[in-house]
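tool_call: predict_structure(chain=1)
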Amino acid sequence: MVWLKRRFAAADYGPYMDHLTQLMDANPRLYREFIMVSTKTPDALVSDYYVGLPNEALAGGFDGFVRVGERDLPKIIDGAHVADTTEEPFTSRFTLRGALSKRGSGAYGHFQRML
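tool_result:
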């Protein structure tokens, strides 16, 4: 997988989430590998966004994002914006901060795609 990162204020990430879901819709067999997660920063209105893609060829259109390696990904995240949170590659990489106390409850065991 290819991983990209960019910091956004408020809902400025929206166009990139739309682009990611369009790519996912165009490549349905690879849907598990289209991921967008975020982590909070000290500034309440700013978050770091991480985008996972199946391959480098799909990285065009993510202007201003920088490539990051697997080891640079956060283990605990604050939001899963586009992800199948029940399957690999999500489950081995991320834990939702709010789910830490809810493990096993099924609260996050669904495909999450907020538009």
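agent: Residues 14-26 form the longest helix (13 residues). Proceeding to next step.
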